[in-house]
TrEMBL record:
SUPFAM superfamilies on file: YjbQ-like
InterPro entries linked: UPF0047_YjbQ-like (IPR001602), YjbQ-like_sf (IPR035917)
Protein name, as recorded: YjbQ family protein
Family membership noted in the UniProt record: Belongs to the UPF0047 family.
Length: 138
């Protein structure tokens, strides 16, 4: 059994976003796990971002962001008050969209469903620079 890891940075921008990481995950697995079975862990080491496995491109990613806006309004109700107005909600996000997910890898490929993608969810407009860690165990 081997453990391989890769960390990369990305810029999410100044608005709420759902960034598809699936191709980055696939490329990592092609390099470190050709033909192997195991687990891929995707982790974002930030207190204001999460990882989701959802459909993208057909509106589900925007629907998730809309739902998060309804559940976590960007107003002054939050006790956590540093940053831009409503920023406290960003610190609640990882309670709903966890900062990590672990996925099966079969034959060196992610074993996702037909419409599933690995997506970074970032509602924090104050910090557009994100780090993602991919770790393969297999």
């Amino acid at each position: 059994m081997a453990f391989e890891t890769l960390t990369f940075d990305l810029i999410t921008g100044a608005r709420e976003t759902a960034t598809d990481l699936t191709e980055r995950c696939d490329a990592f697995l092609r390099d470190v796990a050709p033909g192997r079975d195991g687990l891929l862990n995707v982790f974002v080491p930030h207190a204001t971002a999460g990882i989701a496995v959802i459909e993208t491109g057909a509106g589900s990613d925007e629907d998730l962001l809309d739902a998060l806006r309804e559940l976590l309004p960007g107003d002054d109700r939050w006790r956590h008050r540093h940053g831009s107005p409503g920023h406290g909600r960003d610190h609640v996000l990882p309670g709903l969209v966890a900062p990590q997910t672990t996925l099966p890898v079969i034959g060196g490929r992610l074993a996702l469903g037909t419409w599933q993608s690995v997506v970074l969810i970032d509602t924090n407009r104050d910090n557009p620079r994100r780090t993602v860690r991919l770790s393969f165990l297999g």
